[in-house]
Amino acid sequence: MTPVTVLGLGPMGRALAAAFAVDRPTTVWNRTPGKGDDLTATVAETAAQAIAASPLVVVCVLDYEAVRSILDADALKGRTLVNLTGGSPQQAREMAAWAAGHGIDYLDGLIMGAPAAVGGPEVTLLFSGPNDVYQAHQPTLAALGENAAYVGEDPGRAAGFDASMLDAFWTSMIGIVHAFQFAAAENIAPADIAGYVKVATGLLPELIDLVAEHLTADNYPGDASTMVSAAASMDHVLQAIRANGLDNGVLTSARAAVQQAIDAGHGSAGFSRLAAL
């Protein structure tokens, strides 16, 4: 079995190391000593020693700045680096260019799931970078979970998926939190509104498919709802939000985007037209 090194033993890094260590030699390193002592793995004294122990090196730390601060280019030369640290697509591409310049094979990836899910069917992993590099290490990376997918040669592609999904998630979460704030301003108890918020957000999965369909076809029918009707609805909500003295920044930005579409001549188009502006 191919030996693996894991750099970074935060909650996710520990989970990765534990999954690898089930059936293969695993070496770990962490900036703060002592975190890997309870793992079934060899604990290296330095990052360079850990890197030298394996042909496949997985790094999972706080950010790309931390990644750069611990990597030893000389030790990594001729090895494969898999970066599971969250970051932007541009950061992933810059890291890939750095790796290529030092004779290091590079894959970027993301983990969709909690540390406790790593190694099981509940976690999803996406990888991007050279296909031959991914195929060479896919059997080893499969230890992290059976739901892994290769999404393309562009090393920034996995991070692009990640940022797109997190964009949807955090924007939705802000909307949900704001809904509870507005309800409280109207003396509606959390338990009373929660079920209705679920009904409203329950429409989103179907709408996601619909937006993707419209974008693929480059056709944005307004038979169900138009930009003009969306603007009217938003105006009513904004009026109520402002009357309660609540922050209206997010919805005001959304309303401005809708107005931009209307001004560009898309008032009769469906809301999905915004994704193509």
UniProtKB/TrEMBL annotation:
What are this entry's molecular-function GO terms?
Answer: NADP binding; oxidoreductase activity
**Record's keyword terms, sorted:** Oxidoreductase
Identify the SUPFAM superfamilies for this entry.
NAD(P)-binding Rossmann-fold domains
Q: Where is the 6-phosphogluconate dehydrogenase NADP-binding domain?
A: 4-152
Query: In what residue span(s) does the NADPH-dependent reductive aminase-like C-terminal domain sit?
Result: 154-275
Pfam hit, one: NAD_binding_2
- Indicate whether Oxidoreductase appears among the record's keywords: yes
Q: What family does this chain come from, according to its entry?
A: Belongs to the HIBADH-related family.
Q: What is this protein called?
A: NAD(P)-dependent oxidoreductase
What organism is recorded for this protein?
Actinomadura rudentiformis
Q: List the taxonomic lineage.
A: Bacteria, Bacillati, Actinomycetota, Actinomycetes, Streptosporangiales
